[in-house]
Structure formats: structure tokens, C-alpha cells
Design brief:
This protein is mostly helical and 169 residues long. The protein has helices at 2-18, 32-58, 63-84, 102-115, 119-141, 147-168. Helices cover 74% and strands 0% of the residues.
Length: 169
């Protein structure tokens, strides 16, 4: 009887383990440097969304609304990466224009002020944001060893390049 119980237990264990279902949910590893950059980048995507949302209301340039929506999607993608890696998301429950990172907070105020001066200034603000985003994503790539994070970064970089092209037209 004892052998039957052990055999049945072994069969159940092999069935569960062989099914591909993990016995526990492990959080994937990221370096401290990458964790810091990911948290910064999610806030940078929030900055872009927040600035473009304000400029969509005050500028005659209609692309701000569309690009603000795209930045929301970018913010959502970065938020998923943070969640998947068990990292704190500094954008959660933060109102527009409010940032954990003090440098981004100051940059937001500067860009809003400049962007509301004229239509040309608003476009220049868009160029500043997208060039910064591309540069920061490129710098972060040196820290990435995870395929899922690289995939998201490639997607965000391509989006920023498209936004930059739209502002330069």
C-alpha cells in the first residue's frame, strides 16, 4: 500500500511538472542599473504623455493628441515590464505633471512653459522629448540581457523615431 501511495504521488508530480506549469512564480532577474533605468523610462513616457496632453489642448497642431495616445500605450508597455520584473512603478497614482524623479518634474515645467509660447515652440518641445527618449532608450540597451525587455525597448524606440519624424515634417 505504501508503494502505491508513493507511486501515485510520483505520477501526480510528474504530470504537474511535465505539464509546463511552474510550481511557483519566480520573478525574473534584472540588474540594479537596469531596474533604475526602467523606472526612469516609465516616468519619461509619462512625461511625454503629460506634456503632449497639455499641448494638445493649447496648440493648433493636431498630432499632439494622437501622439499623446501613443505615449499612453508606451507607458502601459513599460508598466507591464516593471510588473513582470516585480519592480515598483513610480507612475502609479501620480497625477499629470507629478513625478517621483525631480529632474523630470523640472523638465516637465520647462517644456510646458516653452510649448505654450507658440506653435513652433510646441513642435520644438516634441522634438526635444523624442530625441531625449531615443537617446535614453539607446543608452539603456547596453544594460539589457532579457529578450522581452529588448523587444519593448525596440518598440518604444521605433515609436519615438516615428514621433520625431512627425514633428520634423
Amino acid at each position: 500500500m505504501k508503494n502505491k501511495i508513493i507511486s501515485v504521488s510520483a505520477l501526480i508530480a510528474v504530470t504537474i511538472l511535465g505539464s509546463g506549469l511552474p510550481a511557483y512564480s519566480a520573478v525574473p532577474y534584472t540588474s540594479a542599473a537596469l531596474q533604475s533605468r526602467l523606472k526612469y523610462m516609465v516616468e519619461e513616457e509619462k512625461l511625454a504623455r503629460d506634456v503632449y496632453t497639455v499641448l494638445a489642448k493649447s496648440s493648433a497642431y493636431p498630432k499632439f493628441r494622437n501622439i499623446a495616445n501613443a505615449e499612453q500605450f508606451h507607458l502601459d508597455q513599460m508598466s507591464i515590464v516593471l510588473e513582470n520584473y516585480g519592480l515598483w512603478n513610480p507612475t502609479l497614482k501620480r497625477k499629470p505633471g507629478v513625478f517621483f524623479n525631480t529632474e523630470l518634474s523640472a523638465l516637465y515645467k520647462t517644456l510646458i512653459t516653452k510649448g505654450q509660447l507658440s506653435a513652433l515652440d510646441a513642435i520644438q518641445v516634441g522634438i526635444i522629448i523624442e530625441e531625449k527618449d531615443i537617446a535614453d532608450l539607446t543608452t539603456m540597451e547596453a544594460l539589457i540581457t532579457q529578450e522581452d525587455i529588448q523587444f519593448v525597448v525596440n518598440y518604444l524606440k521605433a515609436g519615438s523615431q516615428n514621433h520625431l519624424a512627425a514633428f520634423k515634417r
